[in-house]
Write a structure and sequence with these properties.
This protein has an eleven-stranded mixed β-sheet, sandwiched between helices. It has a three-stranded parallel β-sheet with strand order 12-14-13, covered by helices on one side. The chain is globular, with a radius of gyration of 20 Å. The protein has two domains: 220 residues, Alpha-Beta Complex (DHBP synthase), CATH 3.90.870.10; 74 residues, no CATH class. By secondary structure, it is an alpha/beta fold. The chain is 30% helix and 15% strand. The chain contains ten helices and 14 strands. The structure holds threonylcarbamoyladenylate (TXA) and magnesium ion. The site of threonylcarbamoyladenylate (TXA) has 27 residues, from strand 5, strand 6, strand 9 and strand 10.
Length: 315
């Protein structure tokens, strides 16, 4: 695909909003880094984010909203979260909060977790766009494992960028903060620094009146779904690479029709968009689950990574 470079004028913003409404992905400026945005309520759009980034696994994504009122429709802010939001939003702070049951966000955004990472960006272009589009899921707009982009040129960099992999980039020049948002969560009911970022931990501690608990271990990996006990794993056993079901098994098809087909056409984007919901629906049948083989490349590798974690013996 040809990646459009859009100016953040009225026409460019309208074009970006139309692409986003159609389930396409658009790189957008925020004050921290450029984000690769997609409609957070559209599972296929969210799957396209993962595909464009070449993410090896479904890390949960940050959802961007225009203001605190919009955040309240998606998450339970909690008293401490409310204080931090009042102090730092709009701005470079992401809060990991309990998700509301009526949030309406695609399950792929949270990778099946019951919490959601949410942020109100301060960048005027992001602000204006969010008022045209509604909630946007957006990780940094770079290929997985590469340096985060702080300009539209970085986003389109032939080495590690997304040129030809995304519909458009809204070019608003350089990001003023240039560092990803600080992430705060409450994993053991204690305000915890999950990722240092654009707002210093001390500044956040000043507002709370006590220091943030340090996050033990790797700043990112332990948060990844499958490594948290809170991560959704089916109750039923999971048999992978099953070319057909055995008697008594619930079968999840791929590249073939069926009541629980991940993608009739064998499209990994569609399969990724349907994965968590399909696993939940299969689990509700109350039988052992068998899953068709899925080609282990592109998004298929990410799907298999999630399936292997779901199938791993649990303690
Ligand atoms: O500044 C930023 O935060 C940028 C701009 C675009 O907003 N976004 C960004 O997203 O850095 P990303 O996907 O690169 O980082 C998101 C981080 C990941 O480390 C992920 O594990 C964590 O947020 N995260 C998201 N949801 C989470 C959740 N429910 N629980 C714990 N961690 C979560
Ligand atoms: Mg990143």
């Amino acid at each position: 695909m040809q990646t459009e470079r859009l100016l953040p004028d009225q026409m460019g913003m309208a074009r970006a909003a139309i692409l986003l409404a159609g389930g396409q992905v658009v790189a957008i400026p925020t004050e921290t880094v450029y984000g690769l945005a997609g409609d957070a309520r559209n599972g296929q759009a969210v799957a396209r984010i993962y595909e464009a980034k070449g993410r090896p696994s479904f890390n949960p994504l940050i959802v961007h909203v225009p203001d605190i009122e919009a955040a309240r429709t998606i998450a339970d802010l909690t008293p401490q979260g409310e204080r931090l939001a009042q102090a730092f939003w709009p701005g470079a702070l992401t809060l990991v909060l309990p998700m509301r049951s009526d949030a309406g966000v695609a399950s792929l955004v949270t990778a099946g977790l019951s919490t959601i990472a949410i942020r109100v960006p301060a960048h005027p272009v992001a602000q204006a766009l969010l008022r045209l589009t509604g909630p946007l899921a957006a990780p940094s707009a770079n290929q997985s494992g590469r340096i985060s982009p702080t300009s539209a040129d970085h986003v389109l960099d032939p080495d590690g960028g997304l040129d030809g992999r995304i519909s458009a980039v809204l070019d608003a020049g350089a990001c003023p903060v240039g560092l990803e948002s600080t992430i705060v969560g409450w994993p053991d009911n204690r305000a915890t620094l999950l990722r240092p970022g654009g707002i210093p931990a001390e500044t956040i501690a000043d507002v709370l009146g006590h220091p943030l608990a340090p996050h033990r271990g790797d700043p990112v990996a332990p948060l990844a779904p499958g490594q948290l006990t809170s991560h959704y794993a089916p109750n039923a056993s999971l048999r992978l690479n099953a070319t057909e079901p055995r008697p008594g098994e619930t079968y999840i098809a791929f590249g073939a029709p069926g009541p629980l087909s991940l993608s009739e056409a064998g499209d990994p984007v569609q399969a990724a968009a349907r994965l968590f919901d399909t696993l939940r629906r299969a689990d509700r049948e109350g039988h052992p689950i068998a899953v068709a083989p899925i080609p282990d490349h592109g998004l298929g590798a990410a799907i298999n990574d999630r399936l292997r974690r779901a199938a791993a013996p649990r303690g």
